[in-house]
Model the fold of this input.
Amino acid sequence: MKTNFNMFSSEWEFFNKLGQNAEFNLYKDPSISLIQLRVFAEKMTEAVFELEGLDSYKHGKQIDRLNYLENKDIIPPDIIELFHLIRKVDNKAAHEMSGTEEEALNLLRHAHYLANWFMKIYVQFSFISAEFNVPENVDSLKHAELEQIKEQLKENERLMKQERKSFEMKLSSD
Done:
């Protein structure tokens, strides 16, 4: 499956997996996608703490870590805002037991932006940001393909009946 999160090296493979899982669930169960993106954002925040030599255990909650990073000017405000957005949308979805495709797709875009930022700042300064591509709805494609196969089967059955009648008529005339 193509993914927007394949930019991560093996050291950061779990970001790739979380992003890919969020993409996989986008159309099946957007609320699961939102949860995956929240975990993605939380793990990224923990990674920033580790790479900056900070103790994330002193700041146990995501909101506390984000506030600390913001107050110490470690992460730019626009990036902090994206982390908060992911946190807030997932909180709402978790408490209301909901989440829409639109919300999940928007957060996927934001998580992808965060992934590019993380790669450029913490992994490889010369990293060239990758463009976001809307994930394909594989289930929808499979459904359309299945419907096409069903139509082909119906047509083949019709042709076989027609051939059988033709053959039977030929046998009865002999």
Remarks:
- The mean pLDDT is 87.
- The chain has two domains: 10-135, 137-174.
- The longest helix spans residues 138-173.
- The helical segments are 13-25, 30-51, 62-71, 77-96, 101-123, 138-173.
